[in-house]
């Protein structure tokens, strides 16, 4: 059978811009050390639904939202060129994007939503509400929101009895994104309300979005300083999501977990 019977033929991981920050400004007891945070975008080739993106990374619009952009880049210096963007990369590869799954509406995730046409945007109801409000406290830039012509699909949680067995003990709100069990959305509140990661059982891969900025940071969450805590939408939920992911990793070491802003293998994902 083609693709070995898989519904997802391949997954490609791209780094689409980056930001830099000092670990000593985030955690107590750390020496000054700058860390570059890549921004992960995943391209998923689905046999029925075509090309699905998970998030869209940065675009140069992060510099074009007036004083808000200046403040954002002062606190969180960003690097992105046109050729870094997922829109440029998809155009260069001649790829038509059919669906975009949005983890949450921060500038490093919605940067290229305006660059694609005739696609369906998939997210939780809270994520859409946050994006539509575009408040500074929610870190949503008005100039990055997609047009009103873009189709939307709001995710509905699965009933408890329908949760995949490997997710049942660690996560309480799960979505069957494609309706065929090939991509599950997992609710990971804390950093942003309504945030999701995605789990692809055929590849034993969980992309955990910004539930943490990486495994190094997840291990030090209790040492997080006051300002970074307040950057999170809800620090208690942030810690809870990290705890759930750690429990999941402990129970299922065969499943790879990748956060959006940690080092990852670019290119076609190999199990």
Can you describe this structure?
With 271 residues, the protein is an alpha/beta fold. It has a single domain, classed as Ribonuclease Z/Hydroxyacylglutathione hydrolase-like (Metallo-beta-lactamase, Chain A, 4-Layer Sandwich), CATH 3.60.15. Helix content is 23%, strand content 25%. The chain contains 8 helices and 13 strands. The strands form 2 sheets. Strands 1, 2, 3, 4, 5, 6, 7 and 13 form an 8-stranded mixed β-sheet that branches. Strands 8-9-10-11-12 form a 5-stranded mixed β-sheet, with helices on one face.
What's the number of extended β-strand segments? Answer: 13
Q: How many individual helices?
A: 8
**Largest β sheet strand count, sense and barrel closure:** 8 strands, mixed
Structural class: alpha/beta
Total tally of structural domains: 1
Shape from CA axes?
globular
| The top level CATH class name | Alpha Beta
SSE pattern? EEEHEHEHEHEHEEEEHHHEE
Q: Please name the CATH architecture.
A: 4-Layer Sandwich
Mean pLDDT across all amino acids: 95
Helix content bin:
10-25%
Beta-strand residue percentage: 25-35%
Rounded to the nearest angstrom, the radius of gyration is: 18 Å
Determine the N-to-C terminus distance.
20 Å
Low-confidence stretches: none
